[in-house]
Amino acid sequence: MSITCELSNLTSKKAKESSFDKKWLKKPLLFLVLCGSVVVIVLVMFSRLGRIQKEETGSCNGEAKVLYRHQNVTRSEIHDLVSLFSDSDQVLSFECRKESRLGMWGNYDITCSLSMLSEKQETGGVPWNLNPSGLEHSVSSTSRMCNNLEQNLQQPEKLEEEYYEEGLDQGLSSYLRNAWWCLILGVLVCHKIYVSHSKAPTESKERVHMQEPLAQKKQQQRAQTSSRGAGKWRKNILLLGILGGVSFSVWWFWDTNEEIIMKRRETLANMCDERARVLQDQFNVSLNHVHALSILVSTFHHGKSPSAIDQKTFEEYTERTNFERPLTSGVAYALKVPHSEREKFEKEHGWSIKKMETEDQTVVQDCVPENFDPAPIQDEYAPVIFAQETVSHIVSVDMMSGEEDRENILRARASGKGVLTSPFKLLKSNHLGVVLTFAVYDTSLAPDATEEQRIDATIGYLGASYDMPSLVEKLLHQLASKQTIAVDVYDTTNASGLIKMYGSEIGDISEQHISSLDFGDPSRNHEMHCRFKHKLPIPWTAITPSILVLVITFLVGYIFNEALNRIATVEDDCQKMRELKARAEAADVAKSQFLATVSHEIRTPMNGVLGMLKLLMDTDLDAKQLDYAQTAHGSGKDLTSLINEVLDQAKIESGRLELENVPFDMRFILDNVSSLLSGKANEKGIELAVYVSSQVPDVVVGDPSRFRQIITNLVGNSIKFTQERGHIFISVHLADEVREPLNIEDAVLKQRLALGCSESGETVSGFPAVNACGSWKNFKTFYSTENHNSDKIKLLVTVEDTGVGIPVDAQGRIFTPFMQADSSTSRTYGGTGIGLSISKRLVELMQGEMGFVSEPGTGSTFSFTGVFGKAETSSSVTKLERFDLAIQDFKGLRALVIDNRNIRAEVTSYHLQRLGISADIVSSLRLACTSVSKLDNLAMVLIDKDAWNKKDFAALDKLLTFSKITFTRVPKIILLATSATLTERSEMKSSGLIDEVVIKPLRMSVLICCFQETLVNGKKRQPNRKRRNLGHLLREKQILVVDDNLVNRRVAEGALKKYGAIVTCVESGKAALEMLKPPHNFEACFMDLQMPEMDGFEATRRVRDLEWEINKKIASGEASAELLCKSSSWHVPILAMTADVIQATHEECMKCGMDGYVSKPFEEEVLYTAVARFFEPC
Amino acid sequence: MDTLIAQLQRQFRDYTISLYHQGFLDDQFTELKKLQDECSPDFVAEVVTLFFEDCEKLISNMARALDQTGNVDFKLVGSSVHQLKGSSSSVGAKRVKGLCVTLKECCDSQNFEGCVRCLQQVDIEYKTLKAKLQDLFNLEQQIVQAGGRIPQVDI
């Protein structure tokens, strides 16, 4: 119970906590409180109920006991009497009906026995018509009866004791059970609190996390202080709870102890009363018997003539009925003899009346009646005529002569009832005793007879002496728990001087119970004092549970304390972690800021360095100086690219890199890459070839810059690791093409897959290469066709080289950042080894895989897949537009490709096909001679340098020249060379044999240039692009500059004006929006990002929205004529002007629809590259 | 006459170089100078004047904002400082720009005293720069008046 109390304490405490902490805890707490109070109430009720029940059973038992006793006593008494009379054949009928106030059954039983007896008498034969119990009762011997009596008496007592103990046990165990339940509950609650507390900080943490750092700090501090306050508050509550628990346990102990003492007192009273009652009852029974005896004497001695009783009969009868009076030591009958009849009496009996010697009472041995003196002359005498054997010595003794007896006799005959003497030492036995005297009257007196009438009617006295100690002892002996109780019996007739009739000194005097005794003599008062023999034992029943409660209180307190401490530590830890997290985040932010800053800070000077070096290289330098400058320039470029790579890596690692999704022409990108790297490849004499399968769509949707980055990286690596021979071959196929090797239609792919397997396989340069299919055989998703979306295509890109290959032991780690095949690689070839790792991650971002196969000494093939979107056919790619015209020119032309390597010829024909030129392939000049005649309208002959042969060519040339009839014009002869110096080229051209030399790698722009020069000779030529500069790009262009800063605006204006642009300036995003509302004639817009009111992002977004709407109208034909513009739709290029070059800003620029960005302040190079995309010269 | 011009030209060159070396100006000023040509002969002067006007306005703005003890509008100060930073970097006023960066940091951390201190420094710095550039322009003018050509100064 104390636990539940404690619990409710705690829960209330929690409720308080929760009120300022969290509300969700309230409901369960309320429930717990309810549970606790219910448990308390139930427990209290049970304990009370148990007590009442116990009391009831106790009283019941007492009554039953009394009942038993009465029944047995009466029964045996009657039985004995009847047996005596039936033996002596003096009694024919006997009526005895005992009035029983205790219960009908007892009454019935007795009646039954008696009737049986009378039946037996009458028939004198075998008993019949009686129940077995009755029989048993009637024939059982006296001793058996006594045993029964004792047993019956003791049984309930024992029962009671057992019950009591059992009840106690039950009570204790239920307490224990409750206590354990409470403990478990407490632990659960504890756990719950802990959990809730550990959960709460995380919630708050999350909340905190959302806030600004400053506010965060503040809130943290606040949270800290509040949590500390809460901790203190909790501690106080816990202390209160423990105090409550302790006081409850003390109260419980006190209460239980009180209860025990009360119960003890009650028990004592009960037992005492019971003893008194038993004694009284016994005494009364005895008294009744003596009374009966007196009536017997009166009836048979005085009523009969001659007397039916003589000394012998009396002696025998009294001896035999002595068990009925277990309390009397003896009975005697004295006759009332007046002095006038003394002589006659003496004569009659033959002895003289003797005087009772008071002093003789102490000397038992001398108690011989003959020694007594004759009684002195008195008015009347009461000589004993009959006496029980035990007291036969008093026969002939005059009872009137004893002081006590005389008084007794006088009172007895006056009252007609049994009277008692005060206790005195009995003759012979020397015990304290009392004498009971009954008067015997000669005639039956009326109940309302006067005293004189009684005195007159008196004919004798029947006396019985009671030996009090033995009487009480015998009685008490029959009762249970006699060991625990000490009994004193006092005669309290004289209030001032109590006479102790029985008793001992032992026992605890402090608590005793006094019960009054009524022995049937109203003039005498007796009392019984009962007390426990032993002192109150240590009340374990009170101590154990309260100690248990105490222990549990402390335990729970300890648990809660621990929990609170834990909460405190967890909160502290959480706080610390939060701080650490904030610091870590700050460090992370600092890191990215650092990277951005450093990249910016390094890039800016690096641009300076590179620009200056470029300028320097343009000046008049000698070879050595030029070399140095070139080296410096190259290193600078490497450094810049490294910085970019590191930035990329960092971004990919933090998962911040997002791929663009724009439509782009893959072939164009590949052309770009090949032209970019052609310089290096040509330097090394490596043949670079690009092939895109015809099944790959022209335009795909993806991230062109990242795609380019991967290709560039792979090709760059290949170039790096390929020495002076062989080729690098980039090919793009659909993954579907490769998946089914048996149905390959693509000639190039077929040959490559056959590589190493059969004779038909060959490579671009003729140098052996590894079979590419090994590089994609480990791709997991390659062969699965599950994401076979109609709008997605999977491309397989392979880059094959004939380089040194990757050592087998290093093949496992080449995708690890900064891990090259071996440490010597970086010394030999340079590079950091970060490129492949970035490429792989980029490929993974494209939902693809990257793999490679490599054979040291033969070469490597890297391949990767990537998922791209299919572009809608309507979306046009602007880059192609400028070639459109040229392509129109070439469409339908025929070409002959002479190449001894089939695969290379296929690559060439692929490039020709892009221009709309159909190509036939022959493997040698000689074969060409035979086939050329069959070809109509041949526009050009492309001869690979490997197939070049002056002798054979002469034949072909002759054939071509002289067959003018078949050709409308002489086909142009174009030589394809991997590398050729300027002098070689001019030599060849001047020889007149060939019209043009094209340096591989083949790419669209180069081919177009070449063909235009040769085929459309004399027509207007393309302006030399190299001489283009900003002036040309920006001249006469309408440009809008948006910046809120006047100075910046002026500077930008100045810079742009310098390049010939017509600049308009506005100072806010809103104004810009107004200006850019179609129709307008601005061709570009430079927009500051940070502006008040409407920043650059917002302004751009709005402009784009406007344009989108107008475009929609145009598309649907709603737009008025003035809205129509030169191109099909409105899209003014917007370039952001920003001071920082953090990539995130860049990405955001792109996201909101900007086309690029230039760093502020303008630098010529940056401006050029940014603007060039939009202002290709027309 | 020629000697005077030569002297002035040398003086101009030295002065310019000292301005760069002492960190008053940076490359952007050079770029600015490059933008000045026949079409816009007073481009630099115009821009610089604009800049100083801008400076004055912004500084007074900030001073006013910082004057309100109790509830300083750091946001206002921040945006002003941002503008000032942008202009100073456009002009190439290196020191002012550096101070602006510091002031921005102070402003971000709501460091009132730092802001005030920085602002004072900015004030001093821009006035110094103004004086110096005034001297420079004066020199230029003298050269032009003397009939000389303004020399190209490579840093």
From TrEMBL, chain A:
Positions with biased composition (Polar residues): 217-228
Residue ranges of domain Response regulatory in the record: 894-1015, 1038-1175
Cell compartment(s), UniProt: Endoplasmic reticulum membrane
Catalytic activity: ATP + protein L-histidine = ADP + protein N-phospho-L-histidine
Annotated ranges, domain CHASE: 305-529
Domain of life, per lineage: Eukaryota
Coiled-coil residues: 560-587
Residue intervals of the Histidine kinase domain: 597-865
One GO term describing the cellular component: nucleus
MF GO annotations: cytokinin receptor activity; phosphorelay sensor kinase activity; protein histidine kinase binding
Major localisation: endoplasmic reticulum
Gene3D superfamilies: 1.10.287.130, 3.40.50.2300, 6.10.250.1190, CHASE domain, Histidine kinase-like ATPase, C-terminal domain
Modified residues (4-aspartylphosphate): D944, D1088
TM segment ranges: 29-46, 237-254
Chain positions covered by the region annotation Disordered: 202-228
GO terms under biological process: cellular response to abscisic acid stimulus; cellular response to cold; negative regulation of iron ion transport; phloem or xylem histogenesis; regulation of chlorophyll catabolic process; regulation of flower development; regulation of meristem development; regulation of seed germination
Membrane topology field: Multi-pass membrane protein
E.C. number: 2.7.13.3
Protein keywords: Coiled coil, Developmental protein, Endoplasmic reticulum, Kinase, Membrane, Phosphoprotein, Transferase, Transmembrane, Transmembrane helix
PANTHER family xrefs: HISTIDINE KINASE 2 (PTHR43719:SF35), TWO-COMPONENT HISTIDINE KINASE (PTHR43719)
Protein name: histidine kinase
From TrEMBL, chain B:
Ranges of residues in domain HPt: 40-147
Coiled-coil features, chain-numbered ranges: none
Protein keywords: Acetylation, Cytokinin signaling pathway, Cytoplasm, Nucleus, Phosphoprotein, Two-component regulatory system
Listed GO CC annotations: cytosol; nucleus
UniProt cross-references to Gene3D superfamilies, sorted A to Z: HPT domain (1.20.120.160)
CDD domains, per database record: HPT (cd00088)
Principal cellular location given in the protein's record: cytoplasm
GO MF annotation list: histidine phosphotransfer kinase activity; protein histidine kinase binding
Subcellular location: Cytoplasm, Cytosol; Nucleus
Family matches, as Pfam families: Hpt
Phosphohistidine PTM sites in chain numbering: H82
Any one of the GO BP annotations: phosphorelay signal transduction system
Protein purpose: Functions as a two-component phosphorelay mediators between cytokinin sensor histidine kinases and response regulators (B-type ARRs). Plays an important role in propagating cytokinin signal transduction.
PANTHER family noted in UniProt: HISTIDINE-CONTAINING PHOSPHOTRANSFER PROTEIN 3 (PTHR28242:SF65), PHOSPHORELAY INTERMEDIATE PROTEIN YPD1 (PTHR28242)
Domain notes: Histidine-containing phosphotransfer domain (HPt) contains an active histidine that mediates the phosphotransfer.
Name of the protein in its database record: Histidine-containing phosphotransfer protein
Organism of origin: Capsella rubella
